[in-house]
Inverse folding.
C-alpha cells in the first residue's frame, strides 16, 4: 500500500465517519433539547413542587433541628417520597437543640437625644440567655473582628456593636452576605475574649429595613459565651448615628438556651440506576430552617426542588441509568450534623457520588449552576458539562466555577462534581433568616423553573456521565 | 521587490501593529469594565429611580392617557428632568380619552348547577357601555378568532366567551401572552361581525388566579361595536366547566365610554452630545398606564429606568459624545399617539436615532436586551454590540435578536438600532393591567439593576458608536 493510498484510505474513512458522528451528535442534541423542553413544560404545569412547599411552609411551619416542626417535616417528606415510589429511608443524626424562648429585647436607655427606644431585634441562633432583666452597658461600635482585637481589654464590661454593612453595591447578594457574616458568626466569641458582656450585630442584609435577621453564632471557646442579638439595619444606622454624639447605653435581653442534643434524621429516597447503579447523582436541600417565619426560601424551596426533580422525571417516564437520590438534609442551619452523618455513612459504604446538586439559595428564577470539585477532576468534568451549554442557554442557565452547598460539600473527597443551583439572588436577603421568609414570598413559576433546571442537569449527567 | 519580501513586509507590519492594537483594546476593555462596575455601584446605592417610581405610582397613581393622573405624571417627570439639568420640553399629542365609569359586572344567571354567581371581571379598555341593566344572553365558548368565523351567524344574539389560555408552559411569559392576546384585542370586533351582542375574554395571564386583567380592545369597524369584559382565569375555568353541562346565560354590565380626544404630552429631556450631537441615543418608557392599580411594572419602572440612566451618568460625571435623550411616551396603552407624534416630529426634523432603548417589560432583574433594526443595518450594528458581551456577562446581560418596544418601533425607518430591555418575565403577568400592579410589587434592587443595564449599554453605544 502506498503512502498516498494509506492517506486517502484514512481520508475516506474519515469522510464516512465524521458525517455519521456529527449527525448522531446533532440528533442527540435535538432529542436532548426536546426532552429538556418537556421537562420545562412538565415543571410549569403540574404544581407538585409548589404544593410540597406549601405543606412544608404553611402546614409544618418553621423547623429548627430538634423541634416538633423538624420532626413533622421528616415524616411528611418521607411520606411524599414513598408516594412517589422511591426507596425511602431515614438516616439518624444527633442534632443540637437550641430554643429561643421569649422574644429578645434590645433597648436604648437614657439617650439624651431620644430617651428610651426599643429596637427591632432577634436573638442569634445558639445564643445563651442574659439574666432576666437583661444586661445593661455602654456600647462600643466596631466594623470588624480585627477592630475588636485592637480595642482589646478596653471592651471589658461593654456591649460590642458590630455594624459593618453587607455591601449593597455588590451585584451578587451572596457576596455581600459573605463579606459581612463573620461578625454574626464569630463576633460574640471574639468580643468575649476581651471581657465584653454581650454583642449586638447589624443584620446581615444589604437593604435598609426594619426586619432583624437571625442566623448562627458560634462559640469557639465554650468557657467564654456571651449573649448575641441581631438588630435591623435601620436600627443599626440609628444606633450608630446616636452613638456618634453620646455614648449610648443599651439593655439587651435574650432567653435563648441550648438543650441536650436529640436524635433527628436525614430523609433519603432514590431510584436505582439501571446501568450504573453505583454512580449516584444526588439532589438535595435542607429540611431544617431557623425558628422564625416558615423557612420558605431557606430552604423549603430547595426541598421542593429536589423532590420535584424526581417527580418530573417519573412523570416523563424517564428510566435513569444511574442512581438518582433525593436527600433532605437535617441541621444545616446550626450544626451540619445531617450532612456529616450522610458523608460518614456514604464513605463507610464505599459510595461514589458522581454528582451532587444542592438547592440552598432560594426559589427564584434560576440563572445557573456553580460547580466545584477536587482539582484533579474539575477540569475534565466541567469541560464535559460546558458541552451542554447550548442546551441550557434557552433557559438562561449558565455553568460557572464556584462553591456548591454546605450539605454536599463534605462529599468532595469522593471526587465527583458538587453543584449548587444559583437562582437570581436579588430578593434572597430580604427574607433570609427572618419572620418574612414565608410561602407567599415564593413565586410559583420561579420555583418550578428551578426544579426544571435541576431536572435538566440531572438528565444530562445521567445520560452522558461526567 | 520579490513576492517573499512583500509578504514578510506585510508580516512584520502586522507583528508591530497587532500587539499594540490588542493592548489598546484590552486597556479599553478594562476601563470599560471598571466604568460599568461604577454604573452598577451607583445604581445600587442612590435610590433615585426607586423614588421616582414611588412618586409616579404611589403619589400620582394610575394615569391613563387623558386622565388627571397622566397630566400629573407629565408635570412631575418634567420637573424631575429639569432638576437633573436636562434640556426639557413637552411634545403635544392628541390622545383618546376612555373612561371606565362604574365597575363592570359579569354574572352567571340561572345556572342549574350553581345558581347565580358574580365573576371577577374588569372591562377591557376602549369598550363601550352596555345598557344600565346589562346584556343577558347565552354564552358560546370559543378558543380563537377563526372559530368565530366558522360559527358565523349562529352567534347572532349571543355573548361570545373567548377562553384560549395563555400557555403556562412557555418559559417566556411574553410569548404566552402574545399567543393569546388576539382574543382581547380583536375578539369583540370579530364577534360583532356575526351579530354577537357582547364578549367575555379570559384574562391574558398564564397563572390561574382571581385577578381580572384589562387591556385594549380595538374596534376595527366603528359601526360594529359591542361591549367587552375580561374575567379572571379561575372564573374562565369555572365558566367553561359549567358550560359543558348546560348552556350558561350571563348578564354583563359595562359603563365604559370614549370621550372626545384631548391634548396630552410626551416629556422629553436630553443632554446634547459633545462630538456627535446629531446621533441620538434614546432611553424611554411610557408614562401612561391602565386605569387600575398604579401602573408600576407597566410602565412606571420603564420611566424610572430611563430617568435613572441620565441620573447615573450625571452622577459619574460622564460627558456623552452623542445626544442622550430621555423620553416619557404618552398613550402607549390605547393609541400610541405619543409615539407617533414623536416619530413624525423626529422625521420632519431630519433626526437620526442611532439607538433607541425602551424599557416596557417590567422592573425585574434584567436578563438582556432584544435588538431590532432594518435588515440592512442589523447585522453590522449587532455584530458591533456582541463585542461587548464579555463586558455585560458579569451582570448576566445577553444580547439577542427580537422585538424592541411599541413606542420606539416607529423609528425603525431611521435605520438605527431599536432595543428593548428584557427583564426576567416570570412575575410580569401576575400584575400586568391589574389592580395589583402597585409600587410594592417592585423590588428596589431589581429595578436598579435595570437602570444599570441600560446605562451600561448607553455608555458603550455612546463611546463606540454602532
Amino acid at each position: 500500500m502506498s503512502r498516498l493510498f494509506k492517506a486517502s484510505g484514512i481520508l475516506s474513512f474519515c469522510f464516512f465517519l465524521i458525517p455519521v458522528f456529527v449527525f448522531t451528535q446533532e440528533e442527540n442534541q435535538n432529542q436532548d433539547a426536546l426532552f429538556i423542553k418537556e421537562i420545562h413544560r412538565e415543571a410549569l404545569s403540574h404544581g407538585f413542587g409548589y404544593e410540597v412547599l406549601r405543606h412544608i411552609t404553611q402546614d409544618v411551619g418553621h423547623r429548627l433541628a430538634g423541634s416538633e416542626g423538624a420532626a413533622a417535616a421528616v415524616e411528611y417528606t418521607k411520606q411524599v417520597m414513598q408516594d412517589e415510589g422511591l426507596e425511602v429511608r431515614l438516616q439518624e443524626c444527633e442534632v443540637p437543640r437550641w430554643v429561643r424562648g421569649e422574644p429578645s429585647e434590645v433597648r436604648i436607655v437614657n439617650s439624651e437625644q431620644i430617651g428610651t427606644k426599643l429596637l427591632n431585634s432577634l436573638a442569634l441562633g445558639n445564643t445563651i440567655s442574659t439574666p432576666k432583666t437583661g444586661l445593661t452597658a455602654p456600647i462600643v461600635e466596631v466594623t470588624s473582628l480585627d477592630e475588636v482585637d485592637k480595642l482589646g481589654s478596653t471592651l471589658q464590661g461593654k456591649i460590642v456593636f458590630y455594624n459593618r454593612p453587607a455591601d449593597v453595591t455588590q451585584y451578587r447578594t451572596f457576596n455581600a452576605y459573605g463579606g459581612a457574616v463573620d461578625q454574626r458568626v464569630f463576633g460574640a466569641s471574639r468580643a468575649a475574649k476581651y471581657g465584653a458582656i454581650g454583642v449586638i450585630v447589624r443584620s446581615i442584609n444589604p437593604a435598609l429595613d426594619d426586619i432583624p435577621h437571625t442566623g448562627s453564632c458560634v462559640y469557639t471557646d465554650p468557657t467564654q459565651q456571651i449573649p448575641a442579638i441581631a438588630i435591623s439595619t435601620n436600627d443599626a444606622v440609628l444606633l450608630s448615628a446616636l452613638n456618634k454624639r453620646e455614648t449610648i447605653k443599651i439593655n439587651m435581653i435574650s432567653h435563648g438556651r441550648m438543650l441536650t442534643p436529640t436524635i433527628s434524621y436525614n430523609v433519603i429516597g432514590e431510584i436505582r440506576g439501571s446501568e450504573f447503579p453505583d454512580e449516584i447523582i444526588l439532589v438535595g436541600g435542607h429540611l431544617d430552617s431557623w425558628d422564625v417565619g416558615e423557612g420558605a426560601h431557606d430552604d423549603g424551596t430547595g426541598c421542593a426542588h429536589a423532590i420535584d426533580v424526581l417527580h418530573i422525571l417519573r412523570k416523563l417516564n424517564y428510566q435513569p441509568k444511574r442512581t438518582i437520590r433525593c436527600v433532605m438534609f437535617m441541621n444545616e442551619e446550626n450544626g451540619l450534623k445531617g450532612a456529616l452523618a450522610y458523608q460518614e455513612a456514604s464513605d463507610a459504604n464505599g459510595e461514589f457520588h458522581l454528582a451532587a446538586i444542592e438547592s440552598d439559595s432560594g426559589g427564584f428564577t434560576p440563572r445557573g449552576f456553580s460547580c466545584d470539585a477536587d482539582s484533579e477532576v474539575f477540569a475534565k468534568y466541567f469541560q464535559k458539562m460546558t458541552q451542554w451549554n447550548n442546551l441550557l442557554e434557552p433557559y438562561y442557565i449558565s455553568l460557572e466555577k464556584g462553591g456548591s452547598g454546605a450539605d454536599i460539600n463534605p462529599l468532595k473527597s469522593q471526587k465527583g462534581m458538587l453543584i449548587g443551583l444559583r437562582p437570581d439572588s436579588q430578593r434572597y436577603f430580604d427574607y433570609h433568616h427572618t419572620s418574612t421568609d414565608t410561602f407567599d414570598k415564593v413565586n410559583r413559576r420561579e420555583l418550578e423553573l428551578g426544579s426544571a433546571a435541576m431536572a435538566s442537569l440531572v438528565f444530562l449527567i445521567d445520560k452522558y456521565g461526567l
